[in-house]
Amino acid sequence: MAQQVVMPKQGNSVESCIIVEWNVKVGDKVAIGDVLCSAETDKSTIDVESTAEGSVLALLYKEGDEVPVMVPIAVVGEPGEKVEVASAAPAEQEKEVGNLEEMVVAPLSVTPSQESTGSSPRARALASSLGIPLSSLYATGPKGRVIERDVLNAASQPLTPAAREAALKQGLAAPVAGSGIGGRVLASDLVSPVVAPAAPSLPSSPTAEGPVTEIPVKGVRKVTARRMMASIHGTCQLTLHAFADARALKSLRAGFKASKSELGLTDVTLNDLVLFAVSRTLVDFPAFNAHFLGDKMLRFSSVHLGMATDTERGLLVPVIRNSQNMSLKAISLEVKRLVAKCKEGSATPEELSGSTFTVSNVGSFGIEAFTPVLNVPEVAILGVGTIVLKPNEAKDGTVSFIPHIGLSLTMDHQAVDGADAARFLKALMDNIASIDLLLAL
């Protein structure tokens, strides 16, 4: 009997995977455990193994397709066995292996109901708990699917309890801002959901001399693009820029580099020192070690630091868990382990999810300051720039130039105020300036 092979679930945060390459074709014989295809999430690359033995009767998606987890991607059964597939032409709904040669077909007709395919289970559960009708959401998931991120974006709208109940029962949508105090959406502000118009067609590119390369947007780049857009549109982002005295940082780094190799400190970097300072500063500012979920915030007692990491596959964010309890040496070793796994493509979903605050360091490129984009639903993200000389005036009026490191803090103004962000950034500047003392605590 034919059996479906589904896209396996990859941790709690991954809702879809992109098929990178099929390792089999229709008609091939496979055993349980054989790799059918490679797939990637926004976090890592995985091998999808067959859960059935027999001949490949159908491949339900083609390379480059984004597939929700736990959805069938292939059918395995006995050679010659008939397989019913959903197709535009009724005459093609029943085929044998001989007629399926290297053909990619639509998912089987036994797919779930429209309600379950139109939204992910996590999205439905969250929408139900928040009182947000799925019909009022703008879907950004694969194949027009509503996913958890869409619910979180909608949850940022301040609805009154009465408005939330009316929206849920009547399937009404809420405007960006209502007529209530502070822009709260009242029941009278609700409107019938409007179907999003099709995106306007872009003007054709001007004729260019020479060859032009067309590069499809897929894989990690496609997921990153979607998440960045959702972050900008679903949050109220404000960035503060500052420079911290980096003399202690440079002095410690030089001392570690010259230390005995058996101490294991020669490879400690400036970035490791900054991460250590961030982990300790966040303990005193729990409002920034948090997630913003619209009608509630989650403050975490443990600091799980995300590190924006540049790889050949795109941007990945591995997580240093419980960094507030780790020594500088332990943080340095964990950074190197995670970065190596990211570059190899072997980082697991668990190693790439669950961050409570993110640090993005572009100092090696000579960038002094920039505007990092929030890693939603986190409340803030720190951008780290290069070290530059800044003038410093002494009490006697003399001016000297001392090294400073650039810091750029982006925060969600829905969750925290600018003054609080300034206090956090000032505390971080002080901790970096006296990092040698911070290490002694």
Descriptive terms for the model:
alpha+beta; 441 residues; 25% helix; six-stranded mixed β-sheet; Chloramphenicol Acetyltransferase; OB fold (Dihydrolipoamide Acetyltransferase, E2P)
Short description:
The chain is an alpha+beta fold. It has helices at residues 114-117, 121-130, 148-155, 161-170, 219-234, 247-257, 270-284, 328-344, 418-433, 435-438, and strands spanning 3-6, 16-22, 29-30, 35-40, 45-49, 54-59, 66-68, 72-77, 83-84, 94-95, 237-245, 290-292, 297-299, 305-307, 309-311, 314-316, 319-320, 357-361, 380-393, 399-412. 25% of the residues lie in helices and 23% in strands.
Characterise this structure.
The chain is an alpha+beta fold and 441 residues long. The protein folds into 3 domains: 3-111, Beta Barrel (OB fold (Dihydrolipoamide Acetyltransferase, E2P)); 113-187 and 219-234, no CATH class; 237-438, 2-Layer Sandwich (Chloramphenicol Acetyltransferase). The chain is built from 10 helices and 20 strands. The strands form 6 sheets. The protein has a 6-stranded mixed sheet, with helices on one face. It has a 4-stranded antiparallel sheet with strand order 1-8-6-3, with no helix packed on it. A 4-stranded antiparallel sheet has the order 5-4-2-7, with no helix packed on it. Strand 19 and strand 20 form a beta hairpin. Helix 2 runs parallel beside helix 3 (148-155), helix 7 (270-284) packs across helix 8 and helix 7 packs across helix 9 (418-433). The chain is globular, with a radius of gyration of 26 Å. 37% of the residues are buried. Residues 86-117 have low confidence and may be disordered.
